[in-house]
Amino acid sequence: MNITNITNIKHIEDLKGNKEGIQCVIDGVPSSVPLDPANTDYQAIQEWVAEGNTIEDAD
Amino acid sequence: MTKAAELAKMGEVLTNSQIGGRRNIVINGGMQCSQRSTSATGVGASNGVFPCVDRMKIMAGTTAGRLTMSQVADVHDGFANALKFDCTTADTSIAADEFFILRTLFEGQDLQQIKKGTSDAEKLTLSFYVKGNASATYTCELEDRDNSRYNSQEFSVTTSWTRVVKTFLADTTGSFGDDNAESLAINFWLHSGSTYTGGTHTDNVWHTTNNQRVGDNQTSIFDSTDREFFITGIQLEVGEQATPFEHRSFGEELALCQRYYYQSADNLAGGVGQGGMWFGENINTTECFGPGNNFPVTMRATPTVVIYDNSGTAGAAHTLGTGDVTGITVGSISNRGFAKISKSGGLTDERQMGAQFTATAEL
Description:
The complex is a heterodimer. By secondary structure, chain A is an alpha+beta fold.
């Protein structure tokens, strides 16, 4: 997956405020990405973060 | 397979410990499974995507060329299906960094028998069936994704189905990780610029030089809107003897594909009235919990999940007796299922909700 295909990147939090995933739009499709380093969408988002970008807070 | 080849293979399997059992490392090489759809248009616009046929990834870089990718019924040599590329937008002005590749990837833990990077490394034999609308020359490649090493060979396409067989030298440099990450790719280069063609290409040599990866006689699949390319029967096996394609049952092949991608229904817009959907119950106005073991096989990694309401809207779910709710996220995801959907303050307490879904853990 290429990060250019992923937009609207926000954290997903549980009721206690713990981060449990990332919501985003991949190729136009609202998606829920887990915090798993082996997930290729998560890898693409981490590369994007490493470039100095920031994931928005949860809604 | 000739008698001489059979005897040669028998001798080989007795010496490389691969006696019987599964020979083909490729999943869905016969193009049987296409869970997402059977056809996709405008392919070439996005890089690193799976438009239709399972396990068949498209790598596309900066090209203006576009094609339609389809799973087609084309009966020959014991095959019922093939993958077809049909060029719809030509691109004859090829910039240096352009590429279009059909790729299938393998986990390192499934490749340890190759013993790559050791003095006992094995040769590999890649075979596949191809045809086109006219004669063409493309390049097939083994790419070591762990160590950025390449070995490629040109192959020819005619207007008739032809089985291509290419044996690749063993590589004693660079081992594959014993894990669930990508380690090896089979690449079919169908379009490429000078970044990949600029050097002098030599067939069947392991190297690390980007501009030697693609053959000097390469055709572009985007050279004309008449251009078509068909492929099926992809098989990668240990050793230097190509054996007949290993046909597996549809159910077995589908289960292998579902380690990487699963969708709960053929028609994701069909709503919760059809089988396969996820169900849960709202415990408050934010969270809805249900069974968390709803994937049919253990997936390669924790997947990205997309849920669909009764209208087929993504990121939404259906409240029984009430209606669809948009803006839903999925949580508590593992490689065996997901247990929760949520929307802050947006759910109806003590109501049941359902959704169709996709789960993606592709390499």
